[in-house]
Amino acid sequence: MVLLNASEEYPEGRGFYMPERGEVVVYATTRRFALDMYYLSKSRYGRLSSLFLRNFFIEKFLKEAEESLKRAEQYFKQRKYRDAYALYIIAWNEISHTYSGVMSMIYDTLNVNLIFFVFLIPFSFFGGFLFFRGEGGGRST
Questions:
Q1: Cα 45 versus chain centre, distance
Q2: Handedness of CA 85, 1, 61, 70 (dihedral sign)
Q3: 91: domain range?
């Protein structure tokens, strides 16, 4: 579960203000969880897709979650809370799959970069000897 107080302007969230008493009351928590996870997943996947890293299943779950959230928001505004709650739970399930997929893509990208970095250092060292090897007084330091 993620509780960020996220929005379209601040998809990573702005947090919640902690008053002097030390209590924070969040109403409609299922709605808040679903929206926070949606904005966070959509933002992170948007950054990945801008780098041409795409996943059909993530896009499918994101689209389904968006449709469920739109319908849930309509019910919420009409004060049909039972129907809205059910749709928020469905959207939350879809978004949790999306978030898992997005984070898996991010971790995979980081792991591949780490592997390339590990191989880059020795190959650049030996490549320097192979391509830039100089003999005698003309050798540069």
A1: 6
A2: positive
A3: 1-16+24-112
